[in-house]
Amino acid sequence: MRGILAVSLALAAWPAIAFAQTSTPAQAPAAAQASAPAQPKTLRNARYCEVLPISLGLNGLKARVFNTIGYGDCPAALWDKLSESAVRKQFGAVTVMMNGPRYFLMDRIIPKGATAKGEMADIGGMTFESRAEVKLSLFELQEKPYSEHTINRETVYRFDAGQPTFQLKSPKGASYVMQAYAAFIDKSLTYNDLPNLGARLKLPAGWSYSVVTPTQDLLLKATGKATVIQDEMKNTYQKIIP
């Protein structure tokens, strides 16, 4: 998805839904003999990709978030050959968001509940695992950057003391920590560019971007739900809940 989040995953610039199509809820095709996931030794700046099959059911639109974290770094040779139409057909989905490559910014993910173990799928020769679920409205399919969205997941993102975090602050005083940056709107974007990213963003009136280095571990918790936003470059941020 060139939109949400997720693990990370937010909802901007979604393609139009073709309502003439019908679909059953997206089911994950079985992955071929996938080994148990293991977080990269260094999670900060680790590359990953996501696909989000979107289904239309009695309760409306729903996106399931599958990502590659723990199963490899989403090799460009495989990801670049993966087509939206092939993934849509594989899942029987109404449409699919192709979201990647992305790079995580936390130092550790502590999963819980359904986030700890999801369904696996072999997609284009890469192993993906389901990590979150998002209910959508028609309005959200064309949402603008810097708008909040709710994602169903249980996680703790740990940002180590002494390591920089990249944060947005809204006019109402809410703070959002960047959990992943995107390298597909600006394919040249790297971790080293993030301290000065604020000068490149088209921040709404009253918003600010800053680098904050915590003096103790910052634990960004989601106990069932997480509130996320994206900037116009599709970098994803999670709201700090006091």
Structure description:
7% of the residues lie in helices and 40% in strands. The chain is mainly beta and 242 residues long. It has one domain. Strands 2, 3, 4, 5, 6, 7, 8, 9, 10, 11, 12 and 13 form a 12-stranded antiparallel beta sheet that branches. The longest helix has 8 residues, at 84-91. It is globular and about 45 Å long.
Q: How helical, in percent, are the residues?
A: under 10%
Largest sheet, in brief, is: 12 strands, antiparallel
Task: Please report which band the strand proportion falls in: under 5%, 5-15%, 15-25%, 25-35%, 35-45% or over 45%.
Answer: 35-45%
The count of helical stretches stands at 3
Q: Strand pairing plus helix content: what structural class? A: mainly beta
What is the N-to-C succession of helices and strands? EEEHHEEHEEEEEEEE
Radius of gyration: 17 Å
Mean pLDDT: 82
Extended strand count: 13
Poorly predicted runs are: 1-26
Number of domains: 1
Can you tell me the overall shape? globular
Ends distance? 29 Å
